[in-house]
Amino acid sequence: MVNQQPVGSIKQGFLVFIGICGTDTKEIADKMIKKMLGLRIFEDANGRTNLSLDAVQGGLLLVSQFTLYADCRKGNRPSFIQAGAPEMAENLYQYIIEKCRIQNAQVETGIFGADMDVTLVNDGPFTIILDSDELFR
Question: 108 to each of 89, 111, 124, 125, 135, how far by Cα in Å?
Fold first, then answer.
């Protein structure tokens, strides 16, 4: 919600908080999207986590979240120096949205830079961090 107005909502699927750093690129975003959409974390008929988002016709709720780049190593005030500059980050966020829309029928979003209230009902054991530094650099 932004200003107490709903802006994006999904049922089954992924709530994705997207943090963009200054060195992220479209090529890295493409790899992250492929990895995210390929994750097999939904249960099949045998109760095994074996199905992808597409297999369960799940949606995506994509929310920009620069605070994922908070550096809290020194002092008590987080530093966000590693976060991407706003214009660059918003452009890459919009790119990610469009690429996901090409591959998934249901994509909802937050509003870049807005003060958002996000509510999650976590159905299952999965909260996963995909970090491009660990996966692709």
Answer: 18, 10, 21, 23, 25
